[in-house]
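G.,

No rush on this.
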Amino acid sequence: MCNFSQHHWFIRKVLSWRAAAAVAWSVLLLPLCTLLFIFLCRFDLFHPVQWISDSLNDWCSSYVMFSLLLLCIAVLMISASDMYCCAVVPSVSCTRVALMARVLHVCHFVYVAVGFIVACCTALIIGDRYRFITASCITKESPATSHQICLNEYFIFILLAGGFTGFYYSICYFAKNMSCLPFPAIQQYKYLRFKAALPLLIKHSAAQSFHSVKYFYMIYFFLGYIPRAWFSTIMDLSEDRFRQPLNTLKGLMDISLLYHTWLSGTFLLIIWYIEWLLFRIYATEDYYFPVQSSFAEDVDRCLPKVLNSNPPLIVKFLALQDLALLARHSPSRRQEVFSLSQPGGHPHNWLAISTECLNLLSSLTQKLVAYQEAIAVNGRIRHSYSSSGESRSSSSSSGTSITEEPAGQQVVTQLQKTTPQTPIPSLVKTLPFKMAAPFTPDLGSPFSSPPMNTMVGVVDPSSPWYGSVQSPHVMRRGPKLWTSGSSPYTEPAQNNSPYEAVPPVIFRGRFEERKPNFVSIWFQQKQEQVKHFLGRRALIMYLFDKHPEASSQALFADSQAHIWALEGLSHLVAASLSEDRFGVVQMKLPSILNALLALQEAVDKHFKLPHVSSKPVRPSESLTDMSFKTLRFALRSSLRTAIYRITTAFGEHLNSVQISAEHQKRLQQFLEYKE
């Protein structure tokens, strides 16, 4: 989230004023939107002059002025909600339960309340039978002169339709990641961005209002009597028995009611989307961060300091965006990056910027390698369990009994036999960081597989590996799986590689003095029984089943920052050939090439996974931004372009750079334009 309550200087002095400007423009556009709404409500094709004059008179009436005041309050409430929920990294739900949990947000109540407020304003503006909650009752004797007051169901209908439209908008807001701020790929003036999005905004609001009215009509047809009776009881008003109830087919077939309900929902959505669009335009506008400053109080606002500190995410993204722009379009600012400090003659600016970019790229490489290793290990264990299960079943069916070693030891032995003896990938050996535990997508699920739990050291209490194991074969052969020199999981530790192997199985044998608590054992057994019982239910598995494409999207959710880091770093390196007078870039050139080629290898392997799509889906024209689904393809293209940019600038000079043999071979493919 943007978190406007933080005391960062950018939030206080820049982003807050940008948000205030977006709210001010939204409020200033309210009278124009209200005038257009009145024109459409009073539409009369056969009397155009009277239609225009009546619309202008209504626009200047006291009802409309009071409605404008309420609409300003509604816009302020929506703006506060958008500022509270805004984010720069999209939230990708890997399961259907996670999607439902994300949609269930506390801001639903805000949108529903504001929907009621806007619906009251539209009822006042439309007038006629919608203006008040009470109306004169109709009687058989004198329907025109009756003084008895009854409940006006038309007002209740418009009011509930506004609240439902607000609820429908809030569901779409969180389900489609509308709280995420998309940064523009091409920098434009704010007016041009707003003008280009306005026709699509109106079209989207009209279509969404139609869907909202469609669902509301179906709900009101079955449950409309409940709010009518509730309002009648609370307001102590009787229902008009001589009017047709609206929760019937004849009542809902009123064309005028349908038109005004749809028009009210469209008006509500337009003013909300205008505020939402203006806030996105103002918040994602590029900001100029100075590379260096002569004043001590402005050092914290310089680009190297902002990148190496821990600012809010929106500040970090804007700083990386500014880095990509200066590296591409500003030779004078590039000279400041390549300059040396005085006194001392140290390239502090270049070191700070390049180090942060390399850390970003290395963190992404780390996530990709860990994800690939977790997928590979999970697949090998499941395959070994299935093969060992088949061997045990075939042995029992033939009448032979296995007495040499326990069943659990057979699984471990089979795992050792079926695990391929593959060397460590070269990209792992070149990483300048220490790897964390691999990302295991199945471990977060409450129905994680027992093989995967065994790999990470979670031993089932009912398994033969739990508790005191007295078999001498187990104690003699158990450590062999993890300490043997031929095991692929121990090679990194023996070779002093920075990559950390998969955690070994934890055997609770005679070396452990303390026995487990009986209560904890009973609790774990009950927990496993509940998981096993729920795991056999199709509906539960449908809700908790992880979508592999969503897992891939979640890995690249923050790739916009990596794209800017790639662009900025590659442009600076390419420009250093002619602009770097002190040769400060040459010190980091091997590390940069290693990081780029390692990331290239990790990305290529990720796209070769069986569950990952290799081609991007063509995005449809929509007001909501769904580019986060194709960020991994944009990253792959930007990475390849960045490497080609460096190889084109340096050419054959890169052959003298000290990098690994495998990276040199891959770099040669880029030099020959074969990649």
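When you get to it, here's the other one too:
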Amino acid sequence: MLYREAKTKFIFNAETGIMKLEQKLPMSWHAFNETPKFMEIPEIRAINDAQNYLVMSNKSFWMLYYQYKPYTEPHTWVPPFDSYAMVVGPQHFVAFDGQHYDFSGSCSYLLANDFMDSIFSMIINYIVKDKINVKLFKKGVNTKLPVQLDKAYIYREADTIMIEILKGFTLKCNLKFDICKFHVSGWYFGMTAGLWGTMNNEPRDDHLASTKRINNNIGRFAQSWSLQPKKCRSTNNQAKIATEPLNENLTELCEAFFRSKVSPLNTCFPIMNALPYYNLCMNYPNGDNRTSCTAAVAYMEACKLENTPLRIPDVCVQCQLINGTEVPEGQFLNLDAESVPKSVDIVFIVEAKECNANISTKRNINQVVSLIEKELTDLKLANNRYALVVFGGPGIYSEPRSIIVNNQIFTTQQVIPHYFENIPTGNGSSDIFHAISFAKELIFRPGVSKTMILLPCTDCQADNMKLDYPVLHQLLRENDITLHILMNNDFVFPKSRINKIFYGIDSNTAYTKKDVKELKGDAGLRRQVKLPKFYRFRILYTFSIGNKW
């Protein structure tokens, strides 16, 4: 084929009144009723050949990208290589070297142990039927959330509990889908043993028993790692196997997840073998949509460690309303005046620096919460919930963390003051916008009013922020969140006497002592308020219709 270089010829002669334009195209085009022969252009032809290859090979650009991406990362070129192991549901195990098997018992078993330096031990306890409890012990100390023990960070994000040890391993437990993943540094190569195997890139010895012999009988292999050998003498594997075929809907769901060419997980198929997870999905005892999603999320976790992030299938995401009904992802539900919940979710965001030391007494949190609850009650808003996010402190509190008491992120008016007790102060991150963005990800109740109350200490300097002002503003608007600020600086007025009676402002109005009984405000006084230049928060609270006090 010919490849013609595109040329343009333009002639304009004002004296003779001639204007001529000649455009030579890079391909043939003989008549307007014909399609130009774009395939004569080498670049178009190359793109078409690539598209044909992807179609014929049932691959996509992203499949190829994630397949070859690991080869561009130096840490994947030479050992040591990180590894991971999982417990999926009550009985499915994924060993360090990739072996899958099912086991269920009635005792406590050693999942993994560092037999070289005794840095960590992972234990699984079968306490209640069909339930498991995974604990981490470090030097004999039990932990509660959130807490820092030496170099161990233990915290919770949404439905996930995280345990990060700076010595090279992380435990992540998804409470919603019953999955625990243990990620360990490659420097522990050949040092571990237990139900999760030996971590030496040799799948054949993953069933190495405590007797230092390979035992492929799962019951006997597991019994050898029992922590109560005298009490747990049984070598029976109590894992359940689906004796009846799944119903048609669940079979189709498993097929759609792990075998369909249009699966939402298919990007990872060339990288991570989906067959063990398909078998898990099909053989799950008493299977339902949730157990199928558990298999899908487990596959996602495995793919994530192979540098192939996936999105959770739509069918696995539901929004639970206050009345208990669930709305699947992608569906919309309009709440009319009667069905809108008359309640509020309030999140306090506290910067754990010196100005907020002893915050419970200094800021009189009990009284603040009581006054807020009284105002909400007067507005006929009931069953309100409160939560606390802390950032900017020492160690684990440097980054935004949710304070958890009695395993609850949100709590009641009576309990929330206890969340503010014993908050350590330090010199951690000053990224206030990141803290607001983190609080936005908390699980709010659908339909309720969402409010944040920020108690900052540091200046809001753009250099400290990961997000831009417009981005955060858009996040607040999209999520219908109202932001209020209890600032750490005084307001400035031309008349100093105003300072004595001035309380705060919103986007249009200023409030003084005169507004205590009836909140009317003064728009004229609002125009006189001078905020410090570094308080760029005004962009946020103005557009999120909040207040600054």
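The chain has four domains: 7-57, 83-224, 248-316, 344-489+532-548. Residues 273 and 525 are 67 Å apart (CA to CA).

Enjoy the weekend,
O.
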